[in-house]
Amino acid sequence: MKVVFNQKGGSFSIDIMADSKVQNLIEAHTDVLNRNIQRLEMSDTMRKRLTRSNYIFSGMKTFHELNEAFPSLLDSNGNRKTFEAFLNDVRKIDNTYNSNYLRAEYNFVQSSAEMAAKWEQFSEDGDRYNLQYRTANDGKVRPEHAALNGVTLPPSDPFWEEYYPPNEWNCRCTVVQVRKSKYPATPHDEAMALGEEALQRDTKGIFHFNPGMENKTIPDYNPYTIRRCRDCDVAKGKIKLARVVPENELCQACLILHRLKNEGEQRRLTSEERKSIQESAVTWADKHLPKVTMPDGTTGARLTVHTKDGVELHIGKKFFTETYSKCKNSRRVAETMEVATHINEWIRDAEQIRIEPGRHHAFDFVVFKTVYNNQEIEFKAKSTEGLIVYMMRLL
Q: In terms of C-beta density within 10 A (0-12 exposed, 13-18 middle, 19 or more buried), how is residue 186 classed?
């Protein structure tokens, strides 16, 4: 609060958000929300996006807390208070934000992170299984949430876009995969009606979101933001395209927070961080690439797919090690390797664009291009015994 106390002038200055002491406060709050996220099984990209969401949420909360504390600088006669008197007055504000509110926020974030991790795992199976809504099944369950217990639908059903847990503060509901042969799907309209009834107290529509789809622990529209945040480019990370309202302090605070976060994420990774990224990708390959008999009679890991044009492509562990080797010094190495582990989702839509002669090899490279989650990808396949996918890069 010393930063607020030292503010000059008669109005709150938004520049305070970039002050190192305020940033330390935001990071401390973020660290509380980030607890347990590291232990959850999820991709590095998902983890990065969830912790970013926690930082932005913590920053917007801090903005409101400081803005609310600023009027306490002056007494009833308009005179500046002593620091001791000011601190005594703002302790009530601190208690409200960092005791009363924090408990519910922490529970919500932890639940969101767990459900986001689950959604990522569900997505790998597509609609092979149905998803079933389940409550904690005890006396504390809200009656309206209890009505959702047993709702069963495939992951592609729009129901999960709006009524995937957590639904409201301190919600303990979850979702599990179930076999379609054992649990038939609930009629869509019936499920949507039950979902709307369950969230009837959410008159602002804040909780109608899926943390796994949006890669966020807290929706863009929350108690510390405004309704238009739902469709703002800044909230989606596209700050260069955003049209920010200059006179709106909340929008300015949001823009400052996103810029500061971007600057922090663009730093060079440490050797330990790069090593962890490489190991994660190789571990994924070991777990997901099928074991097959190679042409020379040995056993190896290789995935064979056909593009939409009928081109047969083979992916082995070498693809991951070569991709990492080519991009290990890039600031996008984590993002690149994460996309690499989703190769089975984007490679089938690839189109051949050119052939490159191998400068130091006795074979040519066939170059393909595709798009995954609005991200353009280019990859090369070496033309040897079939087309062996060699490496990829993000455009």
A: buried
Render pLDDT for 156-201 as a digit per residue (tens, 0 to 9): 999 999 999 999 999 999 999 999 999 999 999 999 999 999 998 8
Quote the tokens at residue 63. Answer: 């903005």
DSSP track, 125-191: HTTSSEEEEE---STTS-HHHHTTTT-EE-TTSTHHHHHPSP-STT---EEEEE-TTTSPPPPHHHH
pLDDT tens string 20-50: 778 888 888 898 898 888 788 888 889 889 9
Chain Cα centroid distance, residue 207: 16
C-beta separation of 229 from 220 below 8 A: yes
Phi, psi of 286 (to 5 degrees): -60, -35
CB 149 within 8 A of CB 194: no
Contact residues for 355 (Cβ-Cβ < 8 A; gap 6+): 364, 365, 366, 367
Query: In the prediction, which pLDDT does 258 show?
Result: 87
63-95 burial string, b = 16+ CB within 10 Å, else e? bbbbbebbebbeeeeeeeeeeeebbebbeebee
By C-alpha distance, which of 189, 195, 86 is closest to 133?
195
Q: How confident is the model at residue 9 (pLDDT cuts 50, 70, 90)?
A: very low
Is the pTM higher than 0.70? The answer reads: no
- 99: pLDDT strictly greater than 60: yes
User: How many CA within 13 A on the CB side of residue 67?
Assistant: 14
